[in-house]
Fold these 3 entries.
Entry 1:
Amino acid sequence: MKTLLLYLMAGCMMGIPLSAARSQQVNDQVVSALRKNDMNGVLVHFNIMVDLKIPGYSGQYSNNQAGMILKKFFKEHSVSNVNITKEGFTDDGSIYSLGDMTAGGTAYRLYLVSREINGIRKIQLFHVQDQ
């Protein structure tokens, strides 16, 4: 709740619409779930179809398929650190988060993109790539 309040206050002071400040929460919640190795907390934010790229997999997957792939990958590569280094908005209203992640002792780049569809913000793109 404090995080939401801070986003709302910062958004109002910077002239960012309240909906944009609230929208960032989805990416933040996904990152928070990753830090806890809570894949269900990640998957709840996936759109019906997701552009998924992780070592060994690359393509458009249904959220169910993506869920099975992610759970398998993160069962073998437990997350020990996630550090978001850049966040922002694109011209089409999507929100991106870019950062570094350590999982299973390996360093990766993490890239998330969420977009509002029918009034609900969902993850459209989830990439984990070797650094």
Entry 2:
Amino acid sequence: MQIDEPALRKLAKHLVDSQSIAGVLTNGHTGELFALSATERATVTRIVAEEVAKYSELPVISAISCEGIADAQMHAQMARDAGARAVMIMPPHHWLRFGCRESHVLDYFDAIAEVIDLDFFVHVYPAWTRASYSSQLLAKLAKRPYVKVFKVGTRDMNQYARDIAAIRAADTSKTILTCHDEYLLATMVQGIDGALVGFGSFIPGPINKLWEAVKRGDLHEAQKIQAFINPLKEAVYGSGEPTGDAHSRLKEAMRVAGLVENATPRPPTLPPDEKEKAQIRAAVEGAGLARAVAIHV
């Protein structure tokens, strides 16, 4: 199975044409990075960076998910050489089982920063995982000059509020973005700066309009837009947080909407079953997005 370059270029152009985004992230969870080799990840970033540059000056950010420092340094350098203007650092996944010390995290970030001169995004994992960062640690990361953005997916509202407060107290210049695809409005109203979600690959327009309504303080309009999003969210994410299967359901929704022609996920992720496909089609058609070339609320 190979990267579908024409489809990837089409999607990148669609995102730029939506005029609803401030940047494009490659190799996130929705991008199935765990099934991609280092070379493939760099190829994805190169293709997207080339296509985005044809139409805009929007930055392309590449996520880095590695188990060790040497690999992370190599992946970061490859992302830079492929055209990324920033990198998003995910926790090494062995931390999910064994946990980590503050020094592990700080040393990991500092070691990557030694080999590339790019802005860093911090991907904050759910509070229930052993790879979650404490508010104290987030404050320390916020004081690193190369750290510019926090993609916060705490998924515990009490901890989420404490995390935001800790980052703001450490450095008010840092950008804080929600990555809670499954409950956008509730997390947008916490005094943050926007969203960085895989769901934005599918409906960038409505998500941006939701964010604009939140910024204006127009709760009635924000609730209306969230209500439009909810059936789509339920079809893709259900009532829980994103899973690998949710990413394949998102791909199917994008196929129904005409954004991609082939929704086949990279194994071992499985495609949606027929019941899930029917629910996805009903939601996409109900939103008026089936085979759409542009997205409107």
Entry 3:
Amino acid sequence: MKVVFLDRDGTLIDESDDGKVDRLDKLAFKPGVFEGLRLLRDHGYELVIVTNQNGIGSDEFPWDAFQRVQDVFLDEMEKHGIRFFDVFICPHLEEERCECRKPAIGLVKNFLWECEVELEKSSMIGDRSTDVRFGANLGVKSFFLSNERFELEEDLREDPEVHVEQVASFSDAVEKILAENLKAGESA
């Protein structure tokens, strides 16, 4: 199965200034997301969210606040004909050094094996260097969404082992994935 791994905040929805989309008034979808996800699905990709959500369950970010927004997020996706094959959420803080926080691949290890993911046909879309490192750790090509908050770290741009392309929008990433899919299909 071919998969497009997707970051959530900053990729599918706007990133909040405080780093927590914990209220419905903070939930805003990025332009082109619904159309792009439908195109990927229609071209045979499974859609999988992999997201770091700093400190869910803490007093500053209660589970119920996250879940309320996540439920509305998923309902809105459903209204647009989009279902995710799976959603993986790391609730830990960076300093906890867990095995599931991106760029580590602990969240998806079993999924990769159980679902026989074709990594050579899969991709990652995200807005942070940790997303690109996650893609590199998986062995997939990453698409880095250029943004005002985060820059792609220089070592990632220069490492020949990291397959990354900077794009201006979610729609651009989808277009490039589908173009590569078409090219791969013609050479097969």
